[in-house]
Amino acid sequence: VEVNGLMTYDREVIKLDVAETAKWHKALFGPAPELREFLPTSEKTARKWRFTTAKPADGWEKAEFDATKWTEGEAGFGSAGTPGGVIRTKWGVTDIWIRQSFTLLEVPTGEVLVRMHHDEDAEVYINGVLAAKTTGWTTDYTEFSLTAEGRKALKAGTNTIAVHVKQTTGGQYIDAG
């Protein structure tokens, strides 16, 4: 007796809804999504960020915050030996806050992701709005969906991305785009 498959053993009854199954297959085997990069990571080419390892004043994540006194350095920020990290600026204390501005010609449509390699807990802000938050660590670059609020914070023109990472033990690293 056949107990699995798309049809019953006698081929009289199709077990799954044909239209629903076609929709699943189209999503799985249709054309790949279009990926457009608006702000590259420093995975391949170094990008400069403003950063501080001293707790900044309130509002540090907002676009209008003046970070000109922060140090400028190339991402990734971290310590030697962190798996998958491309260390360009040494970071060896518990916390780091990084930020930079970027320009969008138009607000992106569809799903918006932040590509990030972090060790350890990370918070990502777009124009002062919490756009992504994650705990733990990654050993490679990973995509994280922006929150609905984070997506709404994007605008045509100049935008600011600000990231806070907290480290407790082991290797440490941050780079985002």
Short structural description:
The chain is mostly beta strands.
Q: Would you write up a description of this structure?
A:
The protein is mainly beta and 177 residues long. Helix content is 10%, strand content 34%. The strands form two sheets. A six-stranded antiparallel sheet has the order 2-1-5-10-7-8. A five-stranded mixed sheet has the order 4-3-11-6-9, with no helix packed on it. It is elongated, with a radius of gyration of 21 Å. The model has no long low-confidence stretch (mean pLDDT 93).
**Counted beta strands:** 11
Which sheet architecture does the biggest sheet show? 6 strands, antiparallel
Helix-strand sequence: HEEEEEEEEEHEE
Q: Mean of residue pLDDT?
A: 93
Q: What is the helix fraction of residues, given as a range?
A: 10-25%
Radius of gyration: 21 Å
Distance between the termini: 54 Å
Q: Which structural class do the helices and strands define? A: mainly beta
Identify the overall geometry: elongated
Are there runs of 5+ residues with pLDDT below 50, and where? Answer: none
Q: Strand content of the residues, in percent?
A: 25-35%
Regarding quaternary structure, what we see is single chain
Question: In order across it, which strands form the biggest sheet?
Answer: 2-1-5-10-7-8
> What's the helix count?
2
Task: For this entry, give a set of tags.
single chain, 177 residues, mainly beta, five-stranded mixed beta sheet, 10% helix, elongated
